[in-house]
Design goal:
Three copies of one chain form a homotrimer. By secondary structure, chain A is mainly α. The first copy, chain A, has nine helices and no strands. Chains A, B, C: It is found in: Cell membrane.
Chain lengths: 210, 210, 210
């Protein structure tokens, strides 16, 4: 398996995982099956879509490969069918989600670089790819995005993207970059969940300007 | 009247109807007249705008034809002026909205095909054109999108778009396609309202992952 | 200093001011530092980003000049560090925000014209640039956009953009246009705050269609 194939497989696992988290969030809002599929799509491919709209990276991935939409819809409907089992799979999902977050961040960097953007934009692209699906999911489900409050979620994406970018500038081989960034992002996220690491919160309750 | 003109007239009726539903939703949030016009614009042309951004279909329709914005603003302000009458027109609006939904879905398919996209994307394009104006309206008005919960709303759009796509692949004439899809989408939506048809809801109240 | 440099300096002041209002809004939602930076970015450059996506004006400004992102992040973190002082600076922020609103509106008109769009789209572009950062901020912070309800906020943007467009059509010099539009927009907004001017509100509490 080449490193491109590895990333593609991990990306697809991440997409399906995000689809499931989207479907569950829709279920918490008592949406109908259409809403479930829609929120699953937005969660699974929203990050890459926002990234490509911002960077002008047309055609969008799911427009070029529309069968991904069917896979996401299927994952969403299977989530509904097997929802009573979901409570036993929380740990599995958090693990797959950590993997997806890491892979999405790496892919975001790769995509921006392939479009000729500079390092800082590549890192921002990794971050956007990693976290924006979840941000859109929460927006459609009427809650302040968890990403803005949760254990190191966005920070893991940022660290992974920055490290991958740094290794790219150091001209590391693709395998080396993956061998370093995948376990690091994945491990950092799992440790953050396990020990409830978080970054400081800004609590400002003054009224006034805006 | 050619079939292109028919679709254009129906589209414009749909745009003005959506503008009115947007203005009323803004009124329920006690927005000022500017907010009313803004939400009316987002509701009326949001679906086509999201579609064209996703598919890269530039220039956007209202950018190429800015006088549509004035028509929408006028419809929004007339809604405010005649708001005491609106309660008597509920049935009329639901009817016009059903027509608009059907026409928007058909136009979405046509647009994607004209841009060279495959059938599955054309159907998704019809769906996005049909429902995203309402989704954006509800997002700006702080409620979980009705589209994700209401009687067959999105399903009507999906069925209409899929049928229109199927007839296109069967090389039916444009008149035949409209003669089948318009009454079917329109009738299905009216029946769904009349008999409160809906698709199953996913109710998932477990806490846990995300 | 040329008029281009003047506008650039004022634009940058506006960007930093909006970054601060975004950071404070994030603090009211008790977001973590990442959320603070993210909402600051969205508020500061969201208006121009939405405009350029709608008009197809690629590359986006912050993609072409990524160091602006660092300046915004720094402004956001400084806001957190000095948040106890913010309550004493309310008046200063409202003043800078009024200036930013005016400048953003002018820049939006200029950008649309430079892309070859007609006057009506140029005015819409000024309005979008002026108000959409604040709209996105409120969307991410789960409140009905203040812009849709606040003292003449959007109206100031609209008046400034329309006036600038009119003077452009009358072939006024760039300095003359700025000498008229900047004080007018700025003054109008300050007067609106001082005397609590507002435009009529639409209050519609009937249930029914949508």
């Amino acid at each position: 398996m080449s490193e491109v194939q590895l990333i593609l497989v991990l990306w697809f696992v991440g997409v399906l995982t995000e689809a499931i988290t989207g479907a569950l969030a829709a279920g918490r809002n008592r949406m109908d099956l259409f809403g479930v599929v829609m929120v699953a799509c937005i969660t699974a491919i929203g990050g890459g879509t926002v990234r490509d709209i911002l960077l002008g990276g047309y055609p969008l991935i799911w427009v070029a490969h529309p069968h991904y939409l069917l896979a996401i819809a299927l994952a969403a409907l299977m989530t509904v069918a097997f929802s009573p089992l979901m409570r036993y799979l929380t740990r599995l999902f958090l693990t797959l989600d950590a993997l997806g977050l890491t892979v999405f961040s790496i892919i975001g960097v790769q995509k921006a670089l392939s479009l000729g953007h500079p390092p800082l934009i590549a890192i921002a692209s990794g971050l956007i790819t990693g976290v924006f699906g979840g941000i859109l999911r929460d927006l459609f489900c009427q809650r302040v995005p968890l990403v803005f409050r949760k254990e190191l979620y966005a920070m893991v994406s940022l660290v992974t993207a920055a490290l991958y970018m740094g290794l790219t500038m150091a001209e590391a081989s693709e395998w080396l970059k993956l061998a370093i960034c995948l376990p690091l992002g994945f491990g950092l996220r799992l440790l953050a969940i396990r020990y409830r690491w978080s970054i400081p919160t800004f609590d400002y309750q003054e009224q006034g300007v805006h």
